[in-house]
Amino acid sequence: MVTIDDTPHSIALGLGIGFFFGFTPLLGLKTLLSIGVAWLFRSNKIAAAISVTLHDLLLPFMPAIYFWEYRMGTWALGRPQRSFSGLHRVPVREWMNWTSFFSVGQPLLVGSLFLALPSAALVYFVSRGVVTRTRAARAKRERSV
User: Fold this and answer.
1) Which of 24, 53, 85, 88 is the most buried (most CB within 10 A)?
2) For residue 84, is pLDDT > 60?
């Protein structure tokens, strides 16, 4: 990320946007949305795409993350939680309708904000500091040579 030819702010914002969309349950749209929002905010689109892809390394933990996002979403919306027992036996076509979205998807999307926003902010500030510090050290080495 440090070698991308852009400002530290733009790179860090792209990374933060990608990490934000990595937490959302929008499985097929994460990369496209992160690139689109990065373009909208004039941040680095490559950093956004790389960040959302690297977030998928958490894939083995995503069921647990989605479970907690769902719980936080139902709490924030003031709804009772649905039981997850027997959920694995539900056919996929049952998940692809509007009633499933409003009963499970909406709390999941709202709950994802509780993890996505603080994580994106943390990634932004840490990566901006790392890029700035690394570039300053590189410039100092080049001047001394």
Assistant:
1) 24
2) no
Inter-residue contact 120 to 19 (CB < 8 Å): yes
Q: How far is CA 21 from the centre of its chain?
A: 3
pLDDT, tens digit, 9 for 90 and up, residues 13-31: 999 999 999 998 887 789 9
Position of tokens 């904000």? 113
C-alpha 50/C-alpha 18 separation (Å) is 7
67-77 confidence digits (pLDDT tens): 888 889 989 98
Residue pair 69/25 in contact by the 8 Å Cβ criterion? yes
Phi, psi angle pair for 60, to nearest 5°: -65, -25
Report CA-CA distances (Å) from 78 to 45, 70, 98, 116, 143: 36, 12, 20, 20, 59
Is 82 in contact with 103 (CB distance < 8 Å)? yes
Higher per-residue confidence, 97 vs 115: 115
Encoded tokens for 47: 């950093």
pLDDT of the residue at 1: 60
Q: Are 16 and 121 in contact (CB under 8 A)?
A: yes
Could you say which DSSP state residue 145 is in? -
> What is the sign of the dihedral through the CA atoms of 1, 19, 21 and 94?
positive
Under 8 Å between Cβ of 52 and 15: no
